Amino acid sequence: MSSLSLLPDAIVAGLCTGSVYGLVALGYNITYNATGVFNLAQGDLVMVGLMLTWVAVSIFKLPYLVAFLGVVVIVSLISLVEERFVVRPFLVRREANIGWFISTLGFSIMIEAIALIWFGNHPIVPIPSFLPASGFSILGTLFVPRELLVLGALIVLSVGFEFFFKRTRLGLTMQATAEDRQAAGLRGVNPIRVGQIGFLLGGLIAGVAGFVVAPLVSTSISVGLSYSVKGFVALAIGGFGNLRAGVIAALLLGVAESVFTLFVGADYEIAVGLVILLVVLGLKPTGVSRSFAARQV
Amino acid sequence: MPNPVTLRRYGIPLVGVLVAAVYPVVLGADQFRLSQLEYVTSLIIVAVGLNIVLGYAGQLFLGPSAVFGISAYAVAYVAVHQPSLNSFWWMLVVGALSGVVAGVVLGAPALRFGGFYLGMTTLYVATVLPVLVQKVPGLGGISGLSLIADLNFRQSIDGLALYEVALLIVALVVGFSWLLWHSAVGRRFALLATSEELSESLGISTYRTKLLAFVIGSAVIGVGGGMYVHTQQFVTSNSAPAQTSILLLAACVVGGIGRQSGPVVGGAIVFGFAALVPGLQKYEAVAFGLLIILVMVLRPSGIVGFARPRATLPPAADDHDEDLPTAAGPALDPGARLYPRQAIRGALDARSLMQRFGPVTAVDRVNVHVEPGTAHGLVGPNGSGKTTTLNLLSGFLRSSDGSVSVGDNPLKRGKAYLAARAGLSRTFQTPKLVPGSTVHVNLLMAADQVVPPKGFSSVFRLPAGRRREAEVNALADRAAAQLGLLPVLHVPTAVLSHGTQRLVELARAMLLGGAVILLDEPAAGLSPAEVQVVKRSVTEMKAAGSGVLIVEHNLPIVYDLTDEVTVLDRGSVLFHGTPPEVAVDPEVARIYAGSVDRTDQLRENRPARSVEDGSSLKVRGLRAGYGAMDVVHDLDLDVRQNELVAIVGRNGVGKTTLLAAIAGVRYGSNAGKVSIDDRQLESMSPWERTAAGIALVPEGRRIFRQMTVADNLTMAAGGRGTSAADIKNDLNWVYELFPNLQRYHKTTAGSLSGGEQQMVAVAQALVSRPRFLLLDEPTAGLAPILVDDLFTTLLRLRSSGVGVLVVDQNVERLLTISDRAFLMDNGRLVLGGPVESLSLSEIVDTIVRGAAQDAAKQEA
Fold this sequence. Notes:
A: two-stranded antiparallel ribbon, globular, B: alpha/beta
C-alpha cells in the first residue's frame, strides 16, 4: 500500500534517471548516424562533463553560465579529437571492420584513467547547482528542480535536434549520409566533414548532460561505463539511429528501474536493464536490426 | 642449425618461459611477490580463453571478467564447503566445469544476437556481476569468500613450486590453444570469424560453432578462475570488476588477436607491468587505453604480428601468375578424379519460388530443375532476380513461398547449412575465402565437411584424429592438384590474384562435390586461360554426376557450358530452352537490347547541336576494379559539353565501374587521368568532383527514401551558391524540368513509384548544376512512356550545354538520341563513333550472341 502511494514519485524519479540515459542514447545516435560508429566513450564524455563542472563551479568559482559554456566547448573538443584519432582511421579503410568498437572502448578507459589521475585522491563531494536541492510537491508528488533540469535538457535537445535534422540543410545532408553514405558523397556531401560534425554534436550533448547531472551524482568518475551500457540498452530497444525511439526507450528504462526498486528493492536494480535487453532481443532477435536494415533498402 | 623462422617461432617463447621460470629463483622472491606473479599467470590463462572466443571464432565477447568471476566464486564456494575438493588440481577442474556452465548460461542467449549486441550484453553482465555477487546469499557479501581464515584449507602446492606449476599450466593452456587452432575445430572457428555466410555454405551450423567456441573459451577462463582462488586464497566482488574485462581485451589486442601466443605476451605486459612496477598503477590504464587504440589503428595483428614477416607470394608463383592455370593443364587428370561425396546425387528441383521484399516481388513463381550430370544456366539482365533465386536455392534467403528439394529430400527454407549438408555446394560472386589461411588450409576446411571431424580426437591428435587428418590432407592436395594450385598451396589466399582466388573456390566446390554445385559468376574477371580451367572443371563435375547451375553474365560462356538455359526477367522466367534456342529468341534479345518499336521519332526530334564546342570531360588510360581485379582496362573517352554519349554492352563488362571511377567512387584499384578542360580530377574525392561539375546518377535509384522530395533536392543543391535564394533558384530550375516533382515535393521519396523515384534521382543530380551528367541504367524498370520523357529531358539538357554520358540496356532507344555511342566489352570500348556510322544490328548481335570477343580480337 505504501509502495503504491509512492509510485508517482518513483515514476518522476525514473523519468529523471531515464533522461540521463536518454542524453547518452541521443549522443550515440547522432554520432552513429553521422559515421556508423557507436562511440563507446559517450558515457565517459558525460563523466568528463560532470567533473569539469565541478572544477569550474567549485574550484574556479566561475559563474554557472560561463561554466556551462566552458564545459560544453571542452567536451566537444575532446569528442573531436576522438573522431580524428580513434574513429576516422577505421572509416577511411575500404574493408568493413569494427575495429572502432575496440578502439572507442580503449579511448573510454583512457579518459577514465586520466580523470582518475587528476581527481583520484579527492573524496566524492557534491557539486553545487544554481537550482535549489529541495523539491516542491504537486498533488502529493515530489518534483526536484535539479532533477527536472535533466529532463528539461533532454526535451530541449531532442526537439532541437529533430528540428535540426528536418529543417536545416546541414541536418538534411547528415540525414542523407546516415541513409546512404556513398550516395551522399556523390551528391556533394563530404562524409568526413559529416563525421566531424556528428562527433562535435555528440560531444556537445555529453557536455550538456555532464553539466545537468553533476549536482545529482556528485564527483563520481566510475559512472561512465555504466552510462555507456545503459544508453546502449536504450538504443538497442529503440532501434539504431532512431532519435525519438531511443529517447523514449531510455525514459522507459529509467522508469522501469525506479519502479522495480520501489516494489522489489534496490539490490538487483542494476540487472533490470540487462533483463529488459535480453527479453526485447529474445522476443525479436532480428526485429531491432530489421528496422535498421529496412532503412537501407 | 634451425632456420630463422623456426628459431623465432619457437625460440622466443622458449626463452620467455625460461626467463619467467628462473627469474624468481635467481633474484629471489618473497611470498608476496610470488603471489603477485601467480595472479598474473591466472589472468594470462583467462586472456588465452578470451582469445579463443574473440580471436579464433571472431565473436565480440567483452565480458570475460564475468565468466572469470563466476568460476572463481564457484571454486571458492566448493573449496569452503567441500574440503575434499580444495586441492590445487581439483580447483582447476572445478574452475573449468563452472566456466563451462557459465559459458552456456551466458552464451546460449547472448550468442543469438551476435555483433554489437553480443559485445554490449556481455559487457553489461561484466558490470552487473560485481554488484550482484554481494547480494547473493552465501557468497559472503562485500568481504567475499576467503580461504585464508579457513582451517580446513592449506595450499596443496605452495611457495616457489606453486609459481613454477602455475607457469606449467600456462604452457599447457597455450599448448592446448595451439592444438585447437591447428585442428579441424580451429579451422571451423576461423571460417566463422571470416564469414558466417561462408560457414553456412559449407554446412556448418554457425550458432553451434559459436557456442562451442564460447564454451571452450569459458572452460579455459574457468581454469584461470581456479588458479586465481588457489593462489590468492580469496575472492571478492573486487576480484573481477568490469575494468578487468577491458584490461583482458587490451591484453589480447596488444599481444595480437587470434595469435596463439598473443594473449600471453599481451597478458604479461598488461598484468605483469602493473604487478611488478609498483607506483605506476595510476598510469597503466592510460597507457593501455592508448596502446589499444594505437594497435588497432596501426597494426591489428598486435605485438606478435610485428615479429612475423608479412606473407607474400612465392617469387616463382608471382612471376608466372598469369600462366598458372595453363601450367595446370596436365594436372587436370580425369584419372585423379575426386568426388568423395559421390553418394549424394539427385536432381535439384525448385518449384514456384517466391520472394517478396515488402511490396516488391523480386522472384515470382520461378521453377528451376537441374538433372544430375547436366549443366544449367541462369541468365537475365541486372535486377532480374538471378542472385535472389540463387540465395533462395541455397537457403540464404527464406522464400516467401515455394519449395526446393535435392533428390528426394525437401530442403528447409532459409537454412543454408542444411541445404549444404543435403548436397548443395556453391561459390560466391566475390570469392569468399579465409584470407589469413593458406590455400591448403582453405581446402582442408571444405574437406572437413566431407569427412566430419570428431572434435576431441582431432584437437588432441588421437590416432583416429590423425588418420582422419591424413585423409582430409590427401583430399585437399588432390583438389589443389586438379586445379593447378600446387605452386601456391602454402600461400595465404589474401595475396592471391582474383583469378586464382576463384580457382581456389572452385576447388573447394569440387571437393564438396555434392548433388548440385551452384556457381555464381564463375568466369567474372578471369583471364582466358583461367576461363579454360573453369570450363574443364564444369565438364569434370558433370562427368562425376553432379548437377551444375551457373549464374553468369557472359552469355557466350553460358551457351558454351550449359545444356539448358533459363532466362529471368523482372523476377519471372521469360524463356527456357537449349542454348541455341535462347540465342535466337527475339524476346531475349529485347530484354538485353531494348525494344525496337519507336525507331527514329526521337532522333528526328533531336535538336541540333550548338556549333562551338564548350569544355570537355577527358578520360585517359583509366583502370578501375574491385580489390585486386581490374574491370576497366586503359580506357580513353571524351565527352563534350553539348553532347550525348552512350555506352552499351552486356552486363558485367565494366560499364558501372567506368562511370563510378569517373565520378570518383573507388572500389579497388584505380589509375589513369580524368580531367575537365585542364583541371585534373583524378586525385579528387566524389564530393570534390561533384563541386567540379560531375554528377553521377548511380544505378538503382539511390535517393534518400526517408526524406521528402524537396529535402532530397535541397540537400544536393547549392552548386552555384548556398544562399537561400540560390537554393530556391536551383530547385525551381529542376521543377521546371520535372514538373511532376513539384506536385510531390512534400512526399517521402521512398513512397513514390519507381519511375517517379528515378526522376527524383536524376533531378537530385541536376540540382547541383553539373557540367557533365553521368547516368547508370536510368531506364531500368521504367514504363516506355517514362523512358521517352526521360530521354527528351536528356536531349534538352544536352542542348542547354550539359554533357551527358549514359549507360543503358535500352540500346535501341538510347542510340536514337545519342550523338556518339560505344560498345564496351571486357573493360574496353571495342566499337564506336558517331551513331550515324554504327550499325544497330551489329551492336545488338554482339551483345546477345557474343560476337564481341571476335570484334575485340579484330580490333587488337
